């Protein structure tokens, strides 16, 4: 009996919460936020597909199965489809995220949740409940370990994907509290990933996919009767990743405050740390009517955590995703900083390189004040005529304080999805926003597999 989680343990309390999560208990705002994040992660997946980031994983995991790899004609096993869809969705860093965790919950858990919902014949309402529960585990554990986990060299998303996916899976598997607690407990050992891996952006998303797969398997293993260590969060997870191992606040207001609507959505590609500087620069120059040719120098100040993740001398398009200077140059020269801009070819463009040479990025300890409540950027622009311009913003576009609207997310989805799903694009969008009315995920999953989508649309 020593392996049974108690109601006093964190895994026990989270397991109780997960087992009791139902669609009917969710506020309308959480339901609508979950739908938006499903559509948003599908957009992120399309972005990864357009960059070809699925090809190596399909070769690595070639065995056929019953579950579609989104946007392709390929099908894989439950675990391989979940892994590939997760990794590809994360591969261009276009999905949602949380400045309180340094992580990206949608790519970490939604792909696996959709695959498992399809496998178990779950309804759209059950999927939404699973996503909401997974977000709570991701964000609550993530807030407890961030930013300490990054300072210790770990990537938050890869650490948190396993327990978050296990929580979402436990809802879909209808596990009782004890079993749900074991699912989360087992999964705490299966999230692994290093921050340094971000410098090899072609392989880094694999660690997120593997972590999500680990969470899925943990829940399925718990369903079979496997047990996790009862106090693994207090005595293992938190001491490993957090500065404060007490776990204070993790379960505060659990089931009363739903945090899925508190993650940010991305208007640009690349690391989130690039976005406030890009927005500040673009806003300033647009208002002032300044062109890149008039600029002598751009000085950008960000907080120390943001600069720590930056690669300001990128050697390829993958590394450019972490370059604030490149992101600003892409916005000003190419007109946007979407994931399609982060290529070797654009990095080599003489106009981009020349403008990057006029951009200096530095950390300002003063901007650390209040982090992560805000993630500001200060931009100072010197023009060749001697004029000086300055602009500061606290919140990039897409933060809860500066949100993207439903229409913004729809445009983001359409812009990339049309290149993947063609005429099925509006049908996918309609089904996502109608998730709470769907008796199963069958229709949506068919549309996410192009060959099946074509057959389904031809019968309409």
Primary descriptors:
about 450 residues, alpha+beta, 60s Ribosomal Protein L30, Chain: A, two-stranded antiparallel ribbon
Describe the structure.
The protein is α+β, with helices and mostly antiparallel strands and 460 residues long. The longest helix is centred in the first third of the chain and has 23 residues. The radius of gyration is 22 Å and the shape is globular. The chain has a four-stranded mixed beta sheet. The protein has two domains: 253 residues, Orthogonal Bundle (2-methylcitrate dehydratase PrpD); 122 residues, 2-methylcitrate dehydratase PrpD (60s Ribosomal Protein L30, Chain: A), CATH 3.30.1330.120. Helices cover 52% and strands 7% of the residues. Helix 1 crosses helix 8. The model has no long low-confidence stretch (mean pLDDT 94).
């Amino acid at each position: 009996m020593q392996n049974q989680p108690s109601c006093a343990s964190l895994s026990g309390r989270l397991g109780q919460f997960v087992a009791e999560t139902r669609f009917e208990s969710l506020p309308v705002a959480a339901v609508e936020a979950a739908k938006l994040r499903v559509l948003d992660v599908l957009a992120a997946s399309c972005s990864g597909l357009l960059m070809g980031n699925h090809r190596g994983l399909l070769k690595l995991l070639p065995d056929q199965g019953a579950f579609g790899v989104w946007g392709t004609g390929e099908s894989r096993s439950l675990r391989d489809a979940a892994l590939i869809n997760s990794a590809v969705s994360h591969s261009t860093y276009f999905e949602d995220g949380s400045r309180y965790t340094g992580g990206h919950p949608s790519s970490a858990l939604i792909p696996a949740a959709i695959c498992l919902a399809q496998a178990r014949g779950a309804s759209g309402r059950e999927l939404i409940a699973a996503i909401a529960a997974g977000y709570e585990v991701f964000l609550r554990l993530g807030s407890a370990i961030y930013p300490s986990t990054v300072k210790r060299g770990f990537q938050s998303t890869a650490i948190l994907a396993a327990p978050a996916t296990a929580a979402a899976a436990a809802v879909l598997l209808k596990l009782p509290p004890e079993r749900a607690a074991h699912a989360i407990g087992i999964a705490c050992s299966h999230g692994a990933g290093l921050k340094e891996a971000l410098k090899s952006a072609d392989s880094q998303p694999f660690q997120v996919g593997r972590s999500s797969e680990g969470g899925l398997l943990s829940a399925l293993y718990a369903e079979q009767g496997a047990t996790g260590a009862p106090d693994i969060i207090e005595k293992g997870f938190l001491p490993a990743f957090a500065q404060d191992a007490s776990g204070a606040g993790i379960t505060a207001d659990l089931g009363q405050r739903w945090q899925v609507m508190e993650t940010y959505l991305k208007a640009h590609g690349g690391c989130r740390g690039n976005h406030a500087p890009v927005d500040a620069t673009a806003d300033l120059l647009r208002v002032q009517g300044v062109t890149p040719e008039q600029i002598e120098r751009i000085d950008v100040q960000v907080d120390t955590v943001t600069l720590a993740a930056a690669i300001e001398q990128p050697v390829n398009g993958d590394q450019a995703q972490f370059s604030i200077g490149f992101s600003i140059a892409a916005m000003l020269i190419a007109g946007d900083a979407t994931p399609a801009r982060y290529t070797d070819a654009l990095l080599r463009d003489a106009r981009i390189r020349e403008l990057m040479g006029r951009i200096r990025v530095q950390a300002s300890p003063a901007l650390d004040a209040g982090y992560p409540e805000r993630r500001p950027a200060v931009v100072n622009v010197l023009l060749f005529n001697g004029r000086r311009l300055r602009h500061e913003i606290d919140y990039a576009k897409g933060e809860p304080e500066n949100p993207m609207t439903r229409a913004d997310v729809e445009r983001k989805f359409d812009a990339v999805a049309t290149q993947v799903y063609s005429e099925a694009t509006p049908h996918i969008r309609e089904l996502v926003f109608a998730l709470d009315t769907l008796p199963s995920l069958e229709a949506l999953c068919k549309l996410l597999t192009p060959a099946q989508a074509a057959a389904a649309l031809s019968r309409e």
